[in-house]
Amino acid sequence: MRSVVTIIFNNRQSLELTTDVDPAGQAPVAARDWFDATWTRLGCEPLRPSGKVLLLDKILGVADALGYAKLSQDEQQAHEYARQAALALEKPRITVDLPGLVVGF
After folding, report:
1. pLDDT of 63-86, one tens digit each?
2. What is this structure's pTM?
3. 36 to each of 18, 19, 61, 73, 80, how far by Cα in Å?
């Protein structure tokens, strides 16, 4: 499956990343595990006052923690993020809108 992942950091900075993934077998579960581990490694904080953290929150938090500078300069990290998001959500088009705190597909 070809997937396009767009990350909007602000009005002037966004990235559009394309990846090809095969969401068969355990790949989606492994991708969710990757977001869990990366969320923890980067020291991300819950977005909601309740402290509950959903997969979409982790996708937002990891993109925010990595930041535009890192993802625009580190092609390997950007590709890995896009690949994991595509596998975790199993959607062909994903928009990670950091200012709006929304992940759309």
Report:
1. 999 999 999 999 999 999 999 999
2. 0.93
3. 22, 21, 11, 24, 14
